[in-house]
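Lab notebook, page 48
Experiment: co-folding of the full assembly
Goal: obtain a model of how the components sit together before planning crosslinking
Operator: M.T.
Materials (sequences as entered):
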Amino acid sequence: MPTQDAKERLELLQGTLDLLILRTLIFGSQHGQGIARAIQQTSQEELLVEHGALYPALQRLEERGWISAKWGVSANNRKARFYALTAAGRKQLVKETNKWKRLTGAIARILGPEEVG
Amino acid sequence: MFGRKRNLDDFNSEIDAHLELEIERLREQGLSEDEARATARRSFGNVLQAEERFYESSRSLWWDHVWHDLRYALRMLRKSPGFTFVAVLTIALGIGATTAIFSIVDATLLHPLPYPQPEQLVSVVDDLPGVGARDVGMSVPEWHDLQRSGIFEYVSPQAFGSVNLTGSSQPERARFSAVAPNYFALLGGVKPELGDLFNPEDQTPGFTLEVVISDGLWKRAFAADPGILGKSLRLDNDLYHVVGVIPGDFHDAGQTTEERNTEVWASAGFAGAPAPPPLRKSHFLTGAIARIKPGLTIAAAQSRLDALVASLQKEFPEDYPLQSAWTVRLVPLKEAVVGNVRQSLILLLAAVGLVLLIGCVNVANLLLARASARGREMALRQALGAARKRLVSQLLTEGLLLSLVGGMAGLAILFWTKAFLLKILPDSLPRLNEVSVNWAVLLFALVASLLAGVIFGLAPALQASRPDLTLMLKQEGRSSTGSGEQARTRRVLVVTEFALSLVLMIAATLLLRSFWDLLNVQLGFNPQNVMAVRVWLPEPNDPETDIYRTPAQEAAFLHEIERRGRTLSGVEEVAVGDLAALPLGHGRDNLNPFPLIFEGLETPINQAPLVNASLVTPEYFHLLGTTLLRGRLFSESDNEKIPGVAVINEAFARTYWPNENPVGKRLKLPTPGDRSTLSWNTVIGVLADARTESLANSSVPQMYLSLYQRTAKDLAIFVRGRPDTAAMPVELREQVQSVNPELPVFGAQMLKETVSDSLSERRFSMEMVGLFALTALLLAGLGIYGVISYIVSARTHEIGIRLALGAQSPNILRMILRQGLGLAMAGAAAGLVCALIVSHFMAGLLYGVRPADPLTFAGVAVLLIGVALLACYIPARRAVRVDPLVALRHE
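Observation: model returned without errors.
Model output:
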């Protein structure tokens, strides 16, 4: 059961969804619904992922060759399309992660150490 | 993974799978079926939007756009049939004409000759630049030197001509070529449809007495007899037997249609009878072709050949005097075959390309006019969020659709008129039989159409997709005047059109004037009511069997022919000459060059200047109406019993005896009946120059010798008096064949036609360029008409105000005309500059008129401006008739 109302959750910054998908897939292949769940759970329900936005993103990543997909059967015996990280995707993940860390570091330095609000 | 596209169903079932998984998870958490379903839906968000985004990312969208644009374009074209018709017709004519000319260029200039490894085939040309002689021919020892040189795989002389063919139903003249036994091996890839070809290793010194005949002759003269092999036929009374039949699609490597359509090939070693003894100085082989050894380029072969020539000059100093500077040139065979029409064809292609370009400019103008009418539509669509890229591609699609439909219509026209078009091509065009609409031609048409579409579609597309939205939309229902930029573009287009038309018209006028001058030159002889028919006496290989061997024997025959000819009704005069005496009617293989050795100047024979001589009977001069300036003409008593006499023309006298009286001068010429010795001839008369050799050149040195003193086999019977041409050849043939039934009588032609036929190639390119120029003028006129009409309609309101305020009609008229005049003048000025450049490239095609002829330039410019004013007058008059009240209410 969701512990927070959808309104209070954080909306994703543009471009970060790709990074989160790639990061999620590092633990092995997963279907779309599994990816959505994983992101929500790992972020301790802080992040709002509209499931519908996930699929065009998956499609985009697949076209770029960062992930590969094939139809398979889920743990509870349902048909689902499973996505897996490719070698190119793995490289991209490292790159994007570094970029993200530099960005958040820079923003954190500007905002200062003390808690705001 | 990249190439394969997921379809939408696959994507949708993935979404369904997601929802199912989510519902199941939520139900495990304790929600009811309905609650779970609603929550899963909610957290998924907008399903439709996801689908849409998936769809937009897919490549099939591109096709959808193209398809959509295409359907829209089709709808737009159907909605304005008038515009569509004019545009498609313009493009169809342009593409059709351009493709037609290209198909000729493709067949003649671009295609390799139809033999294997055609790049190894060359024509071997001997020149003596030291004495100003070109293509002097080759001797048999020289031919053998070339064969042994190691440069060539094969070398073969080519001696085109014709022979009397008897043994078939009617004696006839067959096109003949004497070649070396290696000839077909040299060309390569020739498979006989019956029997065999010559054995390339044959070493017979004279003729091998074996002939190969063409499919055409086999069918015509032998009714396609399957047992033809081994059968004998008589060529000039000599017995040959047929060893093979060549398929109908084979065309010989000759320079004229006659040569390419050779019907009988005989192989010879050229060293035994009837050829003269194989002396180094005896250059009787008129031409040779060769196949260079594989791996050797023409340039490499030429440099090795130069070394060979230098060593031969050292070895035989008396045969190759240094001052004559003997050289042997290798010319690519294709060049030798088509070289003389290259310039005309390129001119034609350029001219027709200009017409196409002008057509494109016209259609661009029409499209622009439409674009300004559709300006609001474009603005509205853009305001509603259409991407500029989509609008451009929309308009480009319309342009391309127009041009492709036009191109297809053009091809259709071409296919319908193909037979007619092939008929109007001059016969003398080389490789005429290879002209066809093939894949290369179709590809050319397609590329030309696409290019045309881009040219006339792009400008309006870019213009129309960059409208000032607020301005356009604010105009409400008012008829759009288009932006200033658009009007400027249209003016530039019209100026371009005028410039291009002017260039074409000047080119056409220069050609027309050249042609006119040639038609109206003082011929120096009178072709009116003169008919010539040709008769060939047989030339058997054994002279002993020749019944016309001596001049006296032939003279008896000639007297009889002339006597019988004069008995025909309506005939006033009859004369006989050899083929060289036929004015303007002989090709290069019918020339009869004599070396001249003047008394007091004992030049060696191989350095002597060559002059073409005509053998004629005494009646010839009066029949042709030539003018005697000095001395006397031939008489009956100038026969073989007295020393040779010669009549020369003024040009001959001017060239060799300047400022002297040539009458009584003597010169040595080859002795009749024995061309290896020389004997004296006396000049007895001088004729005024006549254009019997070339219409363009009156001063070609000419010499006439008496047909009663020398023999000739290639005869032309001249008859003056009767304009009725139909019955005459038949009556003449009956008369000749009643003297000797074995003689073929053929090739009847009125001399006037011979004269005009000699201009057939010039006439063809003149007519073509003229036609293109007229088309261009028409298109330019339509173009300026369109622009001025448009300006007038856009200014109706303003003109109405002016009229209401008291402006006079003539002033309004002048105002409109001035605008048109400005455009025309700008176009004419630009065109004159371009024409000056272009006309200099045409100098070789002109006669009697300078490339920068001021009269032509000024005249054409004035004509063009006149047409422009006329085209502007119609809309201008409409402008002054405007009723001010209506005009003011005009939106």
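Interpretation: Chain B touches chain A at residues 1-2, 6, 11, 13-15, 17-18, 20-22, 24-25, 29-30, 43-47, 49-50, 53-54, 57 (CB under 8 Å).
Next step: discuss with group before ordering constructs.
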